[in-house]
Design goal:
globular, 8-stranded antiparallel beta barrel, 21 helices, alpha+beta, 581 residues
Amino acid sequence: MKPQTGIPGFTRLIFVLIGVFAFQSVVFAQNKSKQIDDLISLYNKYDQFNGAALVAENGKVIYKKGFGLANMEWNIPNEPDTRFRLGSITKQFTATLILQLVEQGKLKLDGKVSDYLDGYRKDTGAKITIHHLLSHTSGLPNYTAQPGFLETVSRNPYAVEAFVRQFASGDLEFEPGAKFNYSNSGYFLLGAIIEKVTGKSYEQVLKENIFDPVGMKNTGYDHYDAIIGKRAAGYVKTPSGYRNAPYLDMTIPYAAGSLYSTVEDLFLWDQALNEGKVLSAKSKELMFKPNLEDYGYGFVIKNTSLGPNKLAVPIIQHNGGINGFNTIIIRFVRDKRLIVLLNNAAQGRALDKLADGITNILYEQPYEPPKRSIAELLLKTVEEKGVAAAITQYRELKTGKANEYDFSEPELNTLGYQLLRTKKVPESIEIFKLNVEAYPQAFNPYDSLGEAYMVHGDKELAITNYKKSLELNPQNTGATRAIASMTEAGPAVKVDPRIYESYAGDYELMPNFVITVTSEGGKLMAQATGQPKAELFPTSETEYFYKVVDAQVSFVKNEQGQVSQLILHQNGRTMPAKKIR
């Protein structure tokens, strides 16, 4: 008998099965890639995505592609290596640098801000820890939420120390650790601490500690004046078409949102995190441990449920938004999957919807295709034919083309606020009323309608709708404040208008943002930089409130009896403004 040669039958069977499984994996990946391409192409067709996308599975890229234009003026297309501003995705890189410094013994997570920044105010700096800054529990006011900040301050360059002193050293909104409040101010401070501890610029530390070791050659700190190859321009979509995004000096976002990158480099970043190239296992455990509101260090950590059977999937993600750009990175660490979407024509909710659709494709679950925005269509109708025609059009399309257009609650709400911002108050009221009709059990349409009535001066109708909103959602603190401003804050006394002359002047709330107070025909008027003039109504000789917004003003006198400042009370915050003339 000749000796047996070749591969035994059982072994051949194993190889055949392995080959079949490998072939099936490739086919599944190809099918998913086709589905993803079809989905994103439809979002692009509906003007809801203009950027680059990358999807990975089992640690390998199964899809990457650019859509739309990187530069609309020169008709330059987006590609996978196009560089986009990241916005708040920057925060995960800042958090990584901090954890590296903790590993090196140069920082402590329970170390206080005042331990590392000598000139920082002691009363708050001795309370706030590095952990509080990383987890958005410091109580520091968010500088980008300050009234008028984006309109009046964000174009100006600032040195780090000067910015910290003016915009990241405010009075605490709550005791550190007590609550979660997303604060760019906290991550700006982290950047300042990195520079102080290392003796190097934030940008240099990023390059040396992350970008170079990981091979992220297309990632860096975005400088407006630098020549950066393949950098996308940012755009905003308006009813009349796309426009260039407002200018933003990149010293402003700093360690909270100043970076640019590509979808390909962010894949390298994901792999580096998975493989422990930039952080130890202990540091990654800290980074991905959810704190208040499921926020870890630079990432949100949560579980999502997919499909009719509510398949539970753990995800680690973060979104970003900065003038003209919105971005998202979603890491499925357990299943070695990744979604990166970088968009240079900011689209708001559409990016999250697209990410949801791709997630469902990856997990072989049903998903919804995009729909055209009913708000965009109706806005054109309002402008050309009036609000009555738009309402008729809404009803007809909802009956006949519900599968083509998006009739979700936020659509009419968006349209209503677009009209409100352009001073078309009666039209906005009609649109908000239509949304209340469509979603009678949702609290937000009533809240928005209440606000429109308040701006219109219809106090009773405003209060009625705010109360209905509170009935549906007792946690709606904005409605509570609005009602208080129209009831408890109503004029309790008659004030001699002659006293208004003593309040007239300019009050500086922050650099380049001034509230000008004037006395006009027996009325006290206030006008903030870049905003319309509005009347102030008295509750006492020194206490006043707005009817057009939920805000109050107090005038403060010095020891000589002269008015020295006003205090603006808005959104639960107290903001002093010094009288400068």
